[in-house]
Recover the amino acids of this structure.
């Protein structure tokens, strides 16, 4: 028997029932549905729409329904969604009083409430795990990544850096992801409950009360907006997509770093896999999977944006399609952050080959000359000629003698050779945000201060 059977003679067809049900995905939020119903019932009693006995009956009946769901009761498709399943089951448990629970609400505000409760909890958990990832990156940077490596632009060797500098670059991007998730939560955490179908209700309800009981920071002011808005989901998926893009970039780096060619890290056994045919392989599958799952999250954002694009006010059944993408992406992002944290915390940072004489120190020569007063452009040109010669002779910059340097400019003095030491080069870059170790320590302190519990 459908909840609207008063007006209908038959139907819906079996195929319509299975086409239209949202139980599969709704079952993931049954706890939120029960919580929302309890809050609604309490409010109804507080404004005199339920007696205390009726409230007690409804609350204990809802507990019984929750027990059934926890113990694996699976509603049939004729229930259509979790709201109808819970209400029908409640009726079985406590009889006709169950029918009073739906006073002054609609499934439209109910589903909107349930999803907000679901999302609020998961986003807060995700924010916590992103913070943990930031702290793990900081810890690895400061404790294990004081090693000199080439920094790249265009994936070409650019300038020497402490490897820690690069790990912190990732930590900062994740720090903004954590901020974004927190910011999203402000808009997710508003109560639509009591909007009813879209026009409010004639009953003397107290929307602040349900909002308070459910821990929302206030109510959504317009009932039509409350039941039809999905921008909080889109915004969450946008934040997840950006997070996923950061995870994906770091994945690519991990994949490169773990090649023989880069030899920068060795992934732990926990987060690598072997090959069934090539015994020497240690594959960075974890990072590749994280990168691959990014597509799913971007897809969900596109899905939700497209879903709402042409919808008239207010609730339309199309909106039932909102949850699959959202739930899947939140879970995928959470799993990806957790796996990434495992990879980063357990990878071995390898001793890199020395950078002495590497042509990536060329900027140092240009900086040397310009620190002695030569305009940088001219210094750059002279350095270019020196680099060309080294390339032709197959030697490093430190293998030219002072006399040879002087052939290019009089400003070269004996200190040029020690100036070219990679560590000296890195430590000179002590401008704010530069790669010098004191800058790394400063950033580590800032990130720890913001993100440690
Ligand atoms: N199953 C629906 C959904 O998830 C619930 C709201 C249905 N409302 C309606 N008027 N048919 O969106």
């Amino acid at each position: 028997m459908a909840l609207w059977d008063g007006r209908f003679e038959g139907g819906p067809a079996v195929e319509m029932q299975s086409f239209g049900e949202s139980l599969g995905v709704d079952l993931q939020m049954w706890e939120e549905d029960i919580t929302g119903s309890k809050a609604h019932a309490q409010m109804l009693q507080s404004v005199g729409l339920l007696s205390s006995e009726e409230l007690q009956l409804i609350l204990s009946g809802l507990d019984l329904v929750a027990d059934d769901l926890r113990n694996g009761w699976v509603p049939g498709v004729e229930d259509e969604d979790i709201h109808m399943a819970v209400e029908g089951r409640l009726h079985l448990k406590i009889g006709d009083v169950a029918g009073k629970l739906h006073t002054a609400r609609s499934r439209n505000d109910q589903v909107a409430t349930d999803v907000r409760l679901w999302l609020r909890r998961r986003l807060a958990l995700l924010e916590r795990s992103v913070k943990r990832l930031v702290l793990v990156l900081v810890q690895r940077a400061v404790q294990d990544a004081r090693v000199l490596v080439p920094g790249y632009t265009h994936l070409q060797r650019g300038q020497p850096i402490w490897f820690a500098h690069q790990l912190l670059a990732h930590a900062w991007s994740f720090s903004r992801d954590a901020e974004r998730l927190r910011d999203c939560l402000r808009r997710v955490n508003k109560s639509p409950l009591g909007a009813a179908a879209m026009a409010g209700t004639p009953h003397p309800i107290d929307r602040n009360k349900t909002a308070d009981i459910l821990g929302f920071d206030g109510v959504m002011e317009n009932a039509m907006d409350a039941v039809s808005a999905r921008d909080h989901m889109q915004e969450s998926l946008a934040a997840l997509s950006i997070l996923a893009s950061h995870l994906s970039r770091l994945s690519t780096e991990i994949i490169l770093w773990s090649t023989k060619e880069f030899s920068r890290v060795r992934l732990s056994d926990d987060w690598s896999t072997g090959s069934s045919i090539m015994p020497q392989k240690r594959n960075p599958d974890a990072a590749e999977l994280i990168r691959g799952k990014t597509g799913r999250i971007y897809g969900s954002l596109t899905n939700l944006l497209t879903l709402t694009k042409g919808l008239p006010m207010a609730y339309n059944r199309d909106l039932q399609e909102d949850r699959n993408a959202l739930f899947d992406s939140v879970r995928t992002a959470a799993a990806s952050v957790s796996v990434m944290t495992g990879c980063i915390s357990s990878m071995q940072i390898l001793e890199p080959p020395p950078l002495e004489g590497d042509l990536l120190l060329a900027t140092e020569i240009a900086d040397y000359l310009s620190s002695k007063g030569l305009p940088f452009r001219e210094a750059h040109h002279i350095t270019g000629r020196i680099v060309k010669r080294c390339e032709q002779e197959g030697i490093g910059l430190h293998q030219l003698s002072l006399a040879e340097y002087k052939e290019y400019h009089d400003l070269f003095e004996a200190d040029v050779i020690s100036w070219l030491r990679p560590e000296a080069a890195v430590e000179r870059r002590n401008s704010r945000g530069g790669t010098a170790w004191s800058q790394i320590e400063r950033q580590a302190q800032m990130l720890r201060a913001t993100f440690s519990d």
Summary: Residues 22, 81, 107-108, 111, 315, 317, 319-320 surround arginine (CB under 6 Å). The radius of gyration is 31 Å. DSSP finds 18 helices and four strands in the chain.
